[in-house]
Amino acid sequence: MLQVSNLSVARGGMTLLCGVDFSLSAGQILVLRGANGLGKTSLLRCIAGLQNPVEGQIIAPETVAYSGHADGLKGQMTVLENLAFWASIYRGPSPDVALDAYDLHALADRPAANLSAGQKRRLGLARMQVSGCALWVMDEPTVSLDADNVALFRAALARHVQSGGAAVITTHIDLEIASAQLLDLTRFKARGLSGSSAFAEALE
Amino acid sequence: MIQLFWRDIGLSVRSGGGFGLALIFFLIVVILIPFALGPDQAALAKVAPGVLWLGALLACLLSLDRIFGLDFEDGTLDLLATSPLPPEAVYIAKAAAHWLTTGLPLSLAAPVLGVLLNLEFETGKVLCLSLVLGTPALSLIGAFGASLTLGVKRGGLLLSLLVLPLYVPSLIFGAQAVRLAGQGLAYDVALVLLSAISLGAAAILPFASGAALRINLR
Amino acid sequence: MGWSGRLLPWIAAAAAVSLCSGLIWGYFFTPDDMRQGSTVKIIYLHVPAALMAINGYLLMFVGALVWLIRRQHVSVLAAKAAAPVGMVMTLVALATGAIWGQPMWGTYWVWDPRLTSFLILFLFYVGYIALWAAIEDEDTAADLTSVLAIVGAVFALLSRYAVLFWNQGLHQGTTVTVVDGAKQENISNVFFQPLLLSMAGFGLLFLTLLLIGTRTEVRSRRLKVLQARERME
Fold first, then answer.
1. What would the pLDDT profile of B139-175 be if each residue is shown by its tens digit?
2. Could you state, in order of their start, the residue ranges of all structural domains in chain A?
3. How many beta-carbon contacts under 8 Å exist across A and B?
4. What ipTM was assigned to the predicted interfaces of this complex?
5. Per the structure, how many domains does chain B have?
6. Which residues of C touch A192 (CB under 8 A)?
7. In which domain, by residue range, is B35 found?
8. CA A162 centroid distance within chain
9. Which domain holds residue C93?
10. In chain C, how many domains are there?
C-alpha cells in the first residue's frame, strides 16, 4: 500500500533524512522512532502529500488520513458537526462508528471549544475513522491522552488494520500490537550534505 | 466543496468578528464622510457613488485574513490539503463564502447607506447592481492575497498593500458605472467590464491561489 | 557569476559615458522648444526612466515565470534585484513627469492616464518588494513573489486600460497634445539623437544596477546556505 524508496526529506532548505526505504502492506503498522528534530514530522508530511521530497519516490494511495500535532478542530462546531463535516468531505462512513470507538456519544453536542485537551485529541483521532481512508499517517497521536484513552486508540487502530487498513505512526509509547514493526530513523539521518534548496546551486 | 462553503458560512455567522463587522464598518465609514467633507447635500450627492464603492471595498478588506488564517492556525488547513479536495476547490469555496457573508450584504446595504449621502433612489439601484457584480472580484482577489500572506505573522497590513492595487480596475469600473447612471448616461459598458473582471478573476485566480496554498503549506 | 563580473566594469563605464553624453548633449546643446521652452528637456530623463520602469516589471515577470517553470535560482534573484531599480525608475518617471507638467498645468499633479498608470505600477513594485521582505524562508519567498509578479502583471495591464476608460470623460486633452507635440518634434534629429543616447544610457544603467544587485543576491544566498550548513554540524 505504501512504498518509500530512497527518500530524502528536507525542511527549511536543509536535508534531514536521506535514503529512507520501507514498504507497508495492508494490515501492517509501521512505528517510526527517532530523536526530536530528526525529521519524522517532515517525513510524514511528505507521505501525506503536504510537501515534496527532495529525492526519491513515494507510492501511496491517492488520499490518506493525516493527523498532525494540531487537533484540527473548529471550536464553534460541535463534536458531531466536526465529524460530520469530515465525513462529507471524504465521503466516508457515518460518524456514529467513530463516536462509538472513542466513547464520544456523551459529548456529541458539545462545542469543540469546550472540550479538554484529551477530549480534543480523541475527537482528532475519531476523524481518522470517518475518513474511510486505508492509510493512516499519524504524528504523535497519543499526546495528552491518559491510559484509558490510549487503550481506546489502540483498539481502534487494531480494528483498522484488521479490516485491511495500514498505518504509519510516530509515537514514543508501546502500541502493544503484535503486527507493529519498528523503524528507527536515526540511521537515515543526513550527514554533512549540502542544503537541498535550489539556492544551493549558488554554491557552485 | 459545497460542504466547505456551508461550513465557512456557518462558522462566520457563529463567531463574532465576521459577519456583522463589515457592515458596521461600512456604516461608520459612510458616517465619517460628511464630517470629512462638510454637510453640503449637493457635494455629498456628487461623491456618493465613489465613496460608497470605496467604503464597501475597504469593508471587504477587513475579514480577508480570516479566510485562510483561522484554518491555518488550528491545523484544519493542513487537513483540508490532505483531503480529497484540491487546494483550488478550497480557495473557491472560501472565496464564495466570503462573498456571501461580506460582499453580498455590503451590496444590499449600500443603497440604504446612500440615503445618508443624498444618493438618488434610481442611482442606488445601479449602485447595488454594480456592487453585486463587482464584489465577487473583490472576494476572489482578496482571497488570493490571503493565500499569499498566509504564513506572515500580523500580515494584515501587507495583505492590504498587495490587494488594494489589484482592486483598482474593479473600483474604476464600478464607481464609474454608478456615476454615469447618476448623470443619466449609459452605464452598461462599465458594468460589462466590471463583470468581466469578476469572471476573469474566477478563471485565473484559483490556479494562482492553489499554487500559493501549496507553497505555504509545505 | 564569472562572466557578469568581468563584463560589469565595461557595462558600467558604457552606461556612465552614454548617460552623461546624452544628458549633457540634450540639455546644453539643443535649442529650446518653441512652445515649452527649456522644460521639454526633461524628456531626456522622463522617457528613458519610464521605459525602464516598464522594463523592470517585464523582467520581474519573465524571471518569475522562468523560476516557476525551471527553478533556476538566478532568474528569480534577478527579478528580486530588478524590483528596486524598476521602482526607483518609476519614481523618477513620476517626478520628472510632474515637474514637466507643472508649467503647463499649473499644478504638480494631474490624474492623466499615463501618470496614473505609472503610479499604480509603483504600488505593484512596492507590494512585490514588501512580500519578499516579509517571508523568511527563501524558497517560499521566491515562489510566492513569483506568483504575485505574474498575477500582478495581468492586473497592471488591466489597470492601464481601466485608467484610460476612467479618464476619457475628463478633458485632459492638453497633456496628450503636449506629449504628442514633444514626440512629433523628436522626429527632428536635433532632439532625437540625444534622446536615443539617453535611452541607451538608462538602459545600460539599468543593466549595471541589475547585475550588481543580482550578484549581491547570489552572494547573500551563498552566505545563508553556508551559515545554515554550519549550524547543522
1. 999 999 999 999 898 888 999 999 999 999 999 999 9
2. 26-51+61-178
3. 64
4. 0.91
5. 1
6. 232-233
7. 2-216
8. 18
9. 2-232
10. 1
